[in-house]
């Protein structure tokens, strides 16, 4: 039986979304053009997070694992994620034992949704069996239990994100609702005709369309930061977009179709230098790398629970205290009010101000359990393992005849999008499904960036920390048979 070489990964600024030396130089250049070289900056350096020495991994280590004909069929030793064996992690996810078309399920559609560990499923069951009640103001035991569980989840999310307080966390249905909340409750009242909002070419439609709607209603203008040939933001060009009319920036942390890890800390610093506030779409980052909103200095940060092994229909929006105070109520109703007469209404402070009506209590509690789960493994460990898996996947997929990888930035997470010459993307997806391999095929709600690279769609395998090198081997062998 082959074994893996144990490696140690050192923590770098990029691993935490902070600028490295090169990126700081680019930031300085944006403010002091007399020191600026006309050469465009290269793609960001790949991050290399520190992990505990018992469980480190790098792409070259995966070559020591015996190839398998079917996932789970060889008995080859699985690697570790930190100090936790991948075998144990996979055993925590019941659906990974499922069979599809008579084949073991290989779940490579994590960019669309992740699977849930038993710990999250059990927590939801426990809530409904022992704690179910509406929260706040109840004068009975179950109301107290439910409120405690709900607010405890809020506190877990605040700690996970590095937020100053649980009062910085607003529960929303997901990333899309959170972006719309900020667009309409905070940004729209600030805008007048001619004001500008900056987004990037990498954005999901959920971080484009709300800003288009707000711009149409106010006369504001949408400006777009470009990318280089690898799919990384060109920081010097981004900096040139700012002027006295710039009011807001909304950017993805990780591209859902290219996997590019965006240097959000550096970009946020540039925006703040021009007095613009910043929102970060963290839907594709929170499950793949450590995130600290205080270190990023983001004014707003949003993510969806189902992208981080939690329930669907729940997400969290972080806001700095001052922007939460400045934002108008998002919806009106119960819970968000302090006092109501027919002449006027007084609102609660954040976060209650934005949580009208009965919240999705059970799924908020489930999201808290998901946070507990990934925290027990360690986000630095998850980031290190996945980084090696992405490198391995890109290397192996590049050996498939006629296959072109879409998105090759040096700092890249989770996504292995590609097109295959002579084959429709949906055809490839259905072919892989026959082998039990689940991927997404289409435009991935990111048509502008795909069209920038000359495509109307792509096949998107996307990874999580329960995926294995053997699953990538199976994906590659199956594609070779098409």
Concise overview:
The protein is of the alpha/beta class.
What does this structure look like?
By secondary structure, the chain is of the alpha/beta class. 34% of the residues lie in helices and 14% in strands. It has helices spanning 21-31, 86-91, 118-130, 141-161, 175-187, 209-218, 235-240, 264-273, 293-296, 321-326, 361-377, 379-397, 425-434, 447-452, 469-480, and strands at residues 80-81, 84-85, 99-100, 103-104, 106-107, 169-172, 196-200, 221-225, 246-252, 277-281, 300-304, 315-319, 337-340, 345-347, 403-405, 418-420, 437-438, 440-442, 458-460. Strand 10 (277-281), helix 9 and strand 11 form a beta-alpha-beta unit. Helix 3 runs antiparallel to helix 11 and helix 12 (379-397) runs parallel beside helix 15. The chain starts with 20 loop residues before the first helix and ends with a helix. Residues 1-11, 28-56 and 64-75 have low confidence and may be disordered.
Q: Could you list some keywords that capture this structure?
A:
482 residues; alpha/beta; 7-stranded mixed sheet; two-stranded antiparallel ribbon; 14% strand; globular; disordered N terminus
Helix content: 25-40%
Structural class: alpha/beta
Number of strands: 19
- Tally of helical segments: 15
Morphology: globular
Unreliable residue stretches: 1-11, 28-56, 64-75
Indicate the mean pLDDT: 89
Strand percentage lies at 5-15%
- How far apart are the first and last residues' alpha carbons, in Å? 31 Å
Mind telling me the C-alpha Rg?
23 Å
Largest sheet: 7 strands, mixed
Order of the strands making up the biggest sheet: 6-12-11-10-9-7-8
